Write the structure tokens for this entry.
Amino acid sequence: MTATKKIKIQTEPEEDSDRNEIAPKGDSDEDEKVDKGDPLKEIQAKLEIVEQEAKETHDRFLRVSAEFENYKKRSAREMDDFRKYANQSLIKEMLAAVDNLERALNSSNGNSSNDKCMADGVNMTLKEILKVFEKFNVKPIESIGQLFDPTFHQAMMQEETDEHPENTIITELQKGYMIHDRLLRPSMVVVAASKAKTEGDL
């Protein structure tokens, strides 16, 4: 007897094994291009960073240059002031000697020959000292007949008078001096006061 073998024909597709297959590589090149980036943009970014650093360095250089210029000007000004006023203390001490010489001249009557010779000697000494003062730009302050100015004058008293306008300096008790544009010693003065105003106050 002949054996019969049954063959089963599968008509339905088997499980989707193709679903797990690797996707086609058609788009992989584009992904690689995106990951790599644009070289031109990278160069531009680096250039902007370099330009910013150069600008900051230039700004720092300008600030340092300006500070150095200010330092040089300040140093030159300080040196100039030092030269102008270096002898201020010495000259101020000499003013007392000048005052004494002027008092000696004012008090001498010059009647006798001895008095005249002494007065001439004192006058010559005074002139020599004043020449030294002038050499160092030391000048007396003009006070008599000027309006009182507290910047240059020190009022010791007031004197009632109708012969001079009010606040006019009528007497100089001690001469004042300037060294360049700086006050060395104020003038001690007597200032005119109006009689009418003083009587009205009473």
Residues 42-85 form one domain. The mean pLDDT is 82. The longest helix spans residues 39-85. The helical segments are 28-36, 39-85, 88-107, 113-135, 195-201.
